Amino acid sequence: MAFIIRSTLEFFCERKDADSIDKHLPEAMQLARLLETFGAKLEAEQDDELRPDIEFVIHQLLLIAKISDFPDEMGRREMLTLMRKMILVPEIPENNIEAIADIIRKLSINEQDFVRIMVEVVSDVRELAPAVTSTSSEDIRLEALLVSIKSLIIIKYILQRCFDPLSEGSSIYGLLTECVVPAVQSSETVLQEYGIECLALCCLLDKSLAVDNVVLFAQAVKQGSGDLRAKGLAALLDIAFMYGLTDLAVALGEPADFVRLLNAELESNDERTQAMAGEGIAKLLYAHRIPEPAGMLEELLVLYYHPATSSNDALRQCLTYFFPAFSYMSPENQAVMQEVTVPAVCRLTGVLKQQSTESGATHGQAAQQMAT
């Protein structure tokens, strides 16, 4: 029933049917009571097989609350108090934390009020951590790790909803120094991953911070593995898209060094990393963030037709859309495509000739598609 109500309300929202929304949307106080009821039910439930059903209902109710406008001041206060209480539940799922952050943002007067409330929440999470009864050092370490992870998850959702420039006097700057930087410097890989992600979001609010941390993100890409490497690459691509390569590359030496770093990720054996790098570079090219685009464009062309990427659907789907969109965007872009087409075909000829009897494009088909 909760799922049906949520889906119906979202349908009305998509159609911008305000009358139907007002007619079927529960009142804030009623919604708050429902959330409290199911929250208590979840806390009392001992059967692990039933807990996911209750958690699902709670998530649907939170999504319904996101749609609400909270015109009633009493309902607004009641919901805000409840959200702050719910986010402190130790085992709360991450998707519920995200929904609660959206609700608190809607309940807040402005961005500064939202940040103030959420910083207090982070402080409460760190202070109200459950006491560890065991004297085992491993149990103590694990409990501290879980508290730090939850704090960083909340900080991530704060930063994703902030747009004001970061300043040393802001509350977010305090979170950066107290939580994010220690996480990046931690020996725990999982904390490093969350720390890199939060630091990248901070960099999107402060250009000087981005310039100062380019080398750190580059080290995560070069020396990291798995999710840490992926988050470092995502950070580099995001800040490059925001600020361009020219200023950021100074920390690495020159723009060519930044480009070489991205090119190296295009040759990664990991398909997810390769697709992320390809999509990020395509966005940078489309936004004219790369000073000399010919080299990167040629690399993407070769990658698109190379047999080694035949199974990387995410990469090829992105590039299938990118090349026509980039080319038809302006005459200058078409001129760059003309410049790189012949070198790309020459590089592909030897490789594609060997694959001519197998599935995939031949060098002749590749040349014809590029010309088109």
Automatic annotation (TrEMBL):
<feature type="domain" description="Nuclear condensin complex subunit 3 C-terminal">
    <location>
        <begin position="150"/>
        <end position="366"/>
    </location>
</feature>
<dbReference type="GO" id="GO:0051301">
    <property type="term" value="P:cell division"/>
</dbReference>
<dbReference type="Pfam" id="PF12719">
    <property type="entry name" value="Cnd3"/>
</dbReference>
<keyword id="KW-0132">Cell division</keyword>
<dbReference type="InterPro" id="IPR027165">
    <property type="entry name" value="CND3"/>
</dbReference>
<dbReference type="InterPro" id="IPR025977">
    <property type="entry name" value="Cnd3_C"/>
</dbReference>
<dbReference type="GO" id="GO:0000796">
    <property type="term" value="C:condensin complex"/>
</dbReference>
<dbReference type="InterPro" id="IPR016024">
    <property type="entry name" value="ARM-type_fold"/>
</dbReference>
<protein>
    <submittedName>
        <fullName>Chromosome condensation complex Condensin, subunit G</fullName>
    </submittedName>
</protein>
<keyword id="KW-0158">Chromosome</keyword>
<keyword id="KW-0131">Cell cycle</keyword>
<dbReference type="GO" id="GO:0000793">
    <property type="term" value="C:condensed chromosome"/>
</dbReference>
<keyword id="KW-0498">Mitosis</keyword>
<keyword id="KW-0226">DNA condensation</keyword>
<dbReference type="GO" id="GO:0007076">
    <property type="term" value="P:mitotic chromosome condensation"/>
</dbReference>
